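Illustration: Phenylacetate-coenzyme A ligase.
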Amino acid sequence: MYWNERYECMPEEELRELQLERLQATVKRAFFNVPFYRKAFQAIGLEPGDIKSLDDLHKLPFTTKQDLRDNYPFGMFAVPMSEVVRIHSSSGTTGKPTVVGYTRHDIDVWAELMARALVCGGTTRHDIIQNAYGYGLFTGGLGIHYGAERLGASVIPISGGNTKRQIMIMKDYGSTVLTCTPSYALHLAEVMAEMGVSPGELKLRCGIFGAEPWSENMRQEIEKRLGISAVDIYGLSEVIGPGVGIECQEKNGLHVFGDHFLVEVIDPVTEKPVPPGQLGELVITSLTKEALPVIRYRTRDITSLIPGTCSCGRTYVRVARFTGRTDDMLIIRGVNVFPSQVESVLLEMGGTEPHYLLIVDRQGALDTLEVKVEVSDSLFSDKVRGLEELEKRLVNELESTLGISVKVTLVEPKTIERSEGKAVRVIDKRKI
Ligand code: DLL
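Result:
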């Protein structure tokens, strides 16, 4: 049930002591080895010795993606390159990629955390893990891979894409665990159905999906179509990669590995902490990273702290599944809209496939939102009236959920581009 019970179930008081000790070491490491941090500390008259308790965390300055970009590529590293054994990089979809480095010890910690994550998500050493996260600069593939090997499971390093071959391998090798983005899991299910392969012919029983926002309804859809149990895994390159947090079998929030990361949830505007249960931006401080320590890193990811303890026995803080990113959030006519809200409505209503695209534009001074969504095969061959009714119902439901007017365009099945990694859900023409 646990990979490392001593740490995963550590009494809270002991965990806090460990966190403080590690925080102080991290602050020192950053101050003495990274000019960026030294300058940032000095600008507010802070010295490493000022961090005397965990409550002093708020005294530390924030770090942003822009800071990493300004120090591109290796300026934030706290060790000489001779100690860096691995380099990864974020996809760079929102600008210049950020580059991250790992010492041998960092890789070791990452493998340990990923082994814990896999076990927490329901994997054992007897599993055959089909790892369809991309291998390469993206942290997903190798992050999961090292954890799976550490656990002692049999890992198939198939990477993303080549979907028909994925299904053949899944069937022939008897894969029991699938790891990939939720959007790719859905695509796999779709191609499986096209190939006439039913979930009953597979040994698949569990999926560990993350790297992009997905809704609770999407979980249920994937579980149904693949006949598996699916859990949510979270992480980001700047902090380590996958393995910052994961759901346990309770599927009620993601446990954050508190002996390696300190988390806060803040109001992104006032930058003050918000109470548990309230949505805000997740801020992460690494506690053991050597090559790239991050202090109060503004993830831009939106979640809330879950109060109370989990019946699985882990004492780690939990965060709720992610609503989206502050920079994914669309402001349409002054109203905040997340793609995940649209996804939830579409899945709840039925009649459509969970493949959708939000197109935001501006006509004159007015923002417009169009939701393109695929109709399910059966409905598509139905009468025009059925389609008109569905469109009307979708418009009503989306407008009442989002609070703005929406144009719904129903499109033929399989016309919206499928992703092998992170799905693109929004086209915002206003920026062009
Ligand atoms: O996506 C690391 C990862 C790989 C996580 C495999 C999970 C599984 P990046 O490419 O740096 O790293 O992207 C990080 O992806 O800040 C979030 O916005 C988003 N993200 C990651 N996991 C989740 C999740 C990897 N479970 C960015 N739910 C993060 C929602 C997620 N968003």
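Reading the tokens back as a structure: Residues 117 and 297 are 22 Å apart (CA to CA).
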